[in-house]
Write a structure and sequence with these properties.
The structure is a single chain. By secondary structure, the chain is mainly alpha-helical. It contains 10 helices and 2 strands.
Length: 227
């Protein structure tokens, strides 16, 4: 009940020009329709909006709507209602309305007990010496010229999602990792493939031999069937 009340307060701020009925309907839509939409199109077993309280995860799902044909079609048919609902919910999770609900840690009363560490230190300068295999930017561009900037696994297009700032951007994946080569060697565009950051990272989740393009596509299909 507290979560619903705080979500309502957040929507009142975000939808300040809407009527009370419209805000109530949006709250209902977020709780009932949104998890069904995410389960159906975005390869996740989300049971309820409250089972995922990571604003960044919701923002990632919102971005993916444009790259998943079924999700994009349903969102477009609703005049962007699903995308808008995700935006409102992600804002709520990042707002004071949600933070106010978080349980504050109890103070340590026993002086003999070691207090829980809540802060960490970063930023110290550490000098490192490493070997790095050189990459030729020309062959990267040759790969893009041949295959384009759309991910060859999931079809993600940075320009389509982010606009002009994403134009010409894509990561380039070596089918044979440079780390598995002994020294300088010739590379041509057929040795590379354009992948989005997510698919590129997943390709290298298996070492030393990364997942192939076909294997990654199969993993996505298998996950979609199990959702």
């Amino acid at each position: 009940m507290k979560l619903r009340n705080k979500l309502g307060e957040s929507l009142a701020r975000q939808m300040r020009f809407a009527s009370e009925e419209e805000r109530t309907e949006m709250a209902r839509f977020i709780e009932t329709e949104l998890p069904v939409f995410v389960r159906r199109h975005l390869d996740t077993g989300l049971e309820s909006v409250w089972t995922c309280t990571s604003a960044s995860q919701w923002q990632e799902w919102r971005t993916r709507i444009a790259t998943v044909p079924g999700a994009k079609a349903e969102n477009d048919a609703s005049d962007g209602l699903f995308s808008k609902a995700i935006k409102y919910f992600a804002y709520f999770l990042n707002s004071r309305f949600y933070r106010d609900l978080q349980v504050k840690p109890k103070k340590v009363k026993d002086i003999a007990s070691r207090p829980q560490q809540t802060t960490y230190v970063e930023g110290n300068v550490v000098q490192q010496t490493v070997d790095r295999r050189e990459r030729d930017p020309q062959v990267r561009q040759a790969c893009i010229d041949k295959y384009g900037c759309r991910c060859m696994v999931c079809g993600f297009d940075f320009k389509a999602v982010y606009g002009p700032v994403g134009e010409g951007y894509i990561e380039v994946h070596h089918l044979l990792p440079i780390s598995q080569t002994d020294s300088e060697h010739e590379v041509n565009p057929d040795d590379l493939r354009p992948l989005c950051a997510n698919c590129h990272a997943m390709a290298h989740r298996r070492r030393p031999d990364p997942f192939s393009i076909e294997e990654l596509k199969q993993l996505i299909e298998d996950a979609a069937r199990q959702a």
